[in-house]
From TrEMBL:
Protein name: Tuberin N-terminal domain-containing protein
A GO BP annotation: regulation of cell cycle
One GO cellular component, as annotated: nucleus
An MF annotation (GO) of this entry: GTPase activator activity
Entries under Gene3D superfamilies matching the protein: Leucine-rich Repeat Variant (1.25.10.10)
Ranges where the Tuberin N-terminal domain occurs: 46-427
Native organism: Heliothis virescens
InterPro entries according to UniProt: ARM-like, ARM-type_fold, Tuberin, Tuberin/Ral-act_asu, Tuberin_N
Lineage: Eukaryota, Metazoa, Ecdysozoa, Arthropoda, Hexapoda
Length: 443
């Protein structure tokens, strides 16, 4: 070690009381002396600059830098951020993060300078610097809670950066930062930025195979919804994403909770309309349609139905019939479950035209049931359970649909019905024929 190196180290030890004894009283602030400036300056050899950065960085976390000192340190080390030497760049980024952490309450104009550095050099920074640059932003914003001095600029920057992140662990950290920006600084995010954030979160929820990433994406969407920020133009993308995530066990409960919050709020009817339109449009993606059927059922007729939704059965049930055209068992089964929900929970609310559509749905399901090879026991058993429930409603005088249409439905699957059902059909047909026979005799 040269005499110059020892001189700086001795000065720092004295300044911060490093070692068993210190001849000078403790200082309450870190002074950027001429000696420190010489060691950090561009004329000093790189190895000494990096050593000085390490010494100063460790102290700057705990000791206040003199007024104006942070700006001076920035000007002394700024060139290291452009170094081709990776170690030098990373040391400089680490040092700036130490300043951002330890001097958080005293940065003032440096908050703007550091943010602008990250933003303005983002497009051309080396990929290996990404994680340290994010950590600097993470510290500078206090995990996204403090965006003072760059309130209007943070949104576009985050939106530019988010799609470029690939490693799942980094994605999770970045999403958590955006969640905090939404929660603590929602007023500074305009609709266009929120729309972009929602689109990116939905994309991650649908296409990421990493569970923590999807969970964070859903948490971000939940934050947007909780603060009433969801833009109407983003509604279709939002609804379609949740229709897909609800099919996976990891995300089912969270997805339903999120969808229920939306359909129970101001955009509830618009969200329901999007679900219906997804079914009408059809898709080869069974999970998408299955999710839409599930949400409609849960929102309108489920155990936690949304009371503010006032929707005619005739606005919804025809879409179920349309969804069956794809002949996808996963969709068919969900439709049958939904019909069972209607029949068991709200049968008295069904008018005759609604019953007509419902019976048409069951007829279409029965046709599909006959075509399955091997047989689909789940669908077969469930559709016949629904028919039995309707028969019981009829016996109790609570079926307000066309009786002949019901009998025709039972007739078309009579060989699969229980004996009691078959006997009921025969009796009903005989009763209907009796008056006609009497008229013929009288004639």
């Amino acid at each position: 070690m040269s005499s110059r190196d020892r001189s700086l180290q001795d000065k720092l030890k004295v300044l911060f009381k490093k070692g068993p004894s210190a001849p000078l009283p403790a200082r309450t602030e870190l002074v950027v002396s001429g000696e420190v400036e010489r060691e950090l300056g561009a004329d000093s050899p790189l190895h000494r600059r990096l050593r000085a950065l390490k010494e100063l960085g460790e102290k700057a976390i705990h000791v206040r830098v003199q007024e104006g000192g942070v700006e001076k340190l920035w000007s002394l080390t700024r060139d290291l951020l452009e170094e081709s030497n990776v170690e030098a760049r990373h040391a400089a980024l680490w040092f700036l993060r130490c300043l951002a952490e330890g001097q958080a309450d005293y940065l003032q104009i440096m908050r703007t300078i550091l943010f602008h550095y990250l933003r303005d050099t983002h497009a051309r920074h080396p990929p290996e610097d990404s994680q340290l640059r994010f950590k600097l932003l993470h510290t500078l914003t206090n995990t996204g809670k403090n965006i003072n001095c760059f309130e209007e600029e943070i949104g576009p920057f985050l939106l530019e950066w988010l799609p470029q992140i690939q490693p799942p662990t980094q994605l999770v950290e970045f999403l958590q930062l955006i969640i905090n920006v939404v929660k603590f600084n929602a007023t500074y995010l305009d609709e266009e930025i929120v729309h972009g954030i929602v689109n990116n979160a939905c994309h991650l929820c649908v296409y990421s195979a990493d569970v923590p990433v999807v969970q964070c994406g859903l948490s971000l969407l939940e934050a947007v919804v909780s603060y009433s920020l969801l833009p109407r133009p983003a509604l279709r993308t939002f609804v379609a994403a949740l229709c897909r995530t609800v099919n996976l066990e990891h995300y089912c409960q969270t997805s339903w909770k999120l969808m229920r919050n939306v359909v129970g709020a101001d955009m509830g009817h618009a969200a329901l309309q999007q679900l219906v339109e997804l079914l009408r449009a059809g898709s080869e993606e069974g999970g998408l349609l299955r999710g839409a059927v599930f949400y409609i059922n849960m929102a309108l007729w489920g155990p936690r139905r949304v009371p503010t939704l006032r929707v005619s059965f005739l606005a919804v049930l025809p879409a179920f019939l349309k969804a069956l055209e794809g002949n996808q068992p996963v969709v068919t089964y969900e439709v049958v479950l939904s019909v069972q929900s209607v029949v068991s929970r709200v049968p008295l609310e069904l008018c005759e035209p609604a019953w007509d559509v419902l019976l048409s749905i069951l007829r279409a399901v029965l046709q599909q049931d006959k075509s399955y090879e091997p047989p689909n026991e789940l669908i077969h058993n469930q559709v016949h359970a629904v028919i039995t429930s309707i028969e019981q409603l009829h016996d109790a005088g609570q079926y307000y649909g066309d009786v002949d249409a019901l009998l025709d439905l039972i007739d078309c699957c009579g060989h699969d019905r229980p004996e009691a059902s078959a006997m009921r059909l025969v009796s009903a047909r005989a009763a209907a024929l009796a008056p006609a026979a009497a008229e013929a005799v009288a004639g």
